[in-house]
Design a protein that fits this description.
alpha/beta; Cobalt-precorrin-4 Transmethylase, domain 1; Methyltransferase, Cobalt-precorrin-4 Transmethylase, Domain 2; 2 domains; 10 strands
């Protein structure tokens, strides 16, 4: 009988080292307990996964010593041809955990292909509760939470990015739908500049940074107000920080 593929949530950034229990309020106890008993993980990054398991072990002893836990990497550079090999131990009856670099796996994450293959092979998939930067951003933005769409990364080419932003704004206006997207953290400033240049002044724009961390910041205002703030040197503190961008066009 095949094992179960558990989708293991991770923190959205470095844990607060000032807390005795660094995962408190972020990763539920039941999720920590399930993670602690697994001996095989498929991870976006093996090094950070080991660091996460050390935090888990502070409250829930691991089933075997950390050095005996197997961690296979699955990231954007992984050849799709090896995915069956990653699932082979699960087909042989072993439970495993899929863990992303940050947040929940298989959402804006290469693990989605593995989950699809697991379904194709009849492997039981069990997603566990944990922080999602996208849902936290929608919750905190005050924008439309009844209809929203995640668009991943926008083009880096300035002209194509501007065209894409206008398309998303038009869609938002027509469908009253919140549009979400992300950027490589060091380009956050360039993306905000592009948004205020491409979008109408009454379009609402939310910038949600370092979600669930001590430095969390969520701020929603019109594109026009963002433009005024930037001109006055009041840029948000989001350089090189994980950020979710949201927009909702006016009627």
């Amino acid at each position: 009988m095949a094992g179960t593929l558990y989708l293991i949530p991770n923190t959205l950034g470095p844990a607060d080292s000032s807390q005795a229990d660094q995962l408190a309020g972020i990763i539920p106890e039941q999720v920590q307990a399930i993670t602690a008993r697994l001996r095989y993980f498929i991870a976006e990054n093996a090094k950070t996964t080991r660091a996460h398991l050390k935090l888990i072990a502070a409250r829930h002893p691991l089933s075997v010593p950390l050095q005996e836990i197997r961690i296979a990497e699955l990231n954007v550079n992984t050849d799709p041809a090896v995915l069956p090999d990653l699932l082979a131990p699960i087909q042989a009856g072993e439970d495993a955990g899929l863990i992303s670099e940050a947040g929940v796996p298989a959402v804006a994450d290469p693990g989605a292909n593995l989950v699809r293959l697991a379904h194709n092979q009849g492997i039981s998939v069990r997603p566990l509760v944990g922080p999602s930067s996208l849902l936290l951003a929608v919750m905190g933005s005050g924008l439309n939470g009844q209809s929203f769409a995640f668009n991943g990364y926008l083009p880096t080419d300035a002209a194509l990015r501007s065209k894409r932003l206008k398309t998303l704004e038009d869609r938002s206006r027509a469908e009253k739908q919140t549009q979400l997207f992300i950027e490589t953290p060091y380009r956050n400033g360039a993306l905000l500049e592009a948004i205020i240049s491409a979008c109408q002044s009454d379009t609402l724009v939310c910038i949600a940074t370092d979600l669930s961390l001590a430095t969390e910041s969520i701020r929603t205002q019109t594109a026009g107000k963002w433009k005024t703030d930037l001109a006055a040197g009041k840029a948000p503190d989001f350089h090189k920080k994980p950020t979710v961008f949201l927009l909702l066009a006016g009627s």
